[in-house]
Amino acid sequence: MTTNTPAAKLILLITTHRVAPGLLSWPAWEALRSAGRVLAADPAHPQLPAVAQAGVEVRIVAPGSAPALARLLTEAPAGLPADAGPTVWLGSPDGDPGLTDALARLAVEHAGEVPEIEVLPGSYDLPGARLLDLVSVMDRLRSPGGCPWDAEQTHASLVKYLVEEAYELVEAIEEGDRDMLREELGDVLLQVFFHSRIAEEHPTGAFSIDDVAGDIVDKLMYRHPHVFGDAEASGAAEVEASWEALKAAEKSERESVLDGVPAGLPSLAYAAKLVSRVRRAGFTGVPDEPYELPAELTAESAGRLLLAVAQRAHDAGVDVDAALRSAARGYRDAVRAAEGLKPAE
Hints:
Shape: elongated
Largest sheet: 5 strands, parallel
Structural class: alpha/beta
């Protein structure tokens, strides 16, 4: 430590790059306006234009090592009046690695020779702010100079990964593995952002992640009038009924109760979805298929029954997945025929 006069006070002004420039707290603006000097290391700091527009001069310094920067910040430069006000350090977006440790070391080794040090948060991340980082990362990966593999992907090429990640998420839920759940949710989220970033490049039908988020926000608000409107709901069952009624109104152009069921679902899920649609619509035009079940059907016995079918099919050389999908398609066509409609193409 040199014999230079200590700075009157050192304020470490910490900001986040995830908010619009200039959105600083009132204490942060007071500190900037009352400072004897304001220093920063990053000439591209996102807050610099807003700070300059407010009439606050910021001096850009080359900090070198963290200990060198700590000494620079704690010593008042020659010619600076004693009552000039505190030194304000506009923290860099990378957090200035090692700076706080270096300042703490100086405060211990040179007690009484360093100024009072205050850490002042100037802005805060809002909930969901890290999603902005994911937008930036995906943009970097898809842009020139990014990742060649990511740049080559299309909606079609990513389908298999989306399906795999969804099943891995289901597994995490079923296993009750919280760490795995967190990771797999991130992987599924990545797929949504990846597809949205690809969609931005479409020559005629481009849309962004903001459009995707905006659409689902609008849909959720419309389908929850008991939360965002004047409607009332006495319980979950009434909420579900309202949801289905609103959804039906949106899809009024559909011919069949089965329209919109994705044929790409796995066979068991596809069959279950078809049956669910028919049951929910109260449709009775097609009788249930006869089958034999154990005297008491439980989750375990149902699982064993399905397993036995899969085993017998395998032994007979039958693709049980293809067989069930075929039967489900036949069921779908029978429902449409009973509705007076042509079989689905």
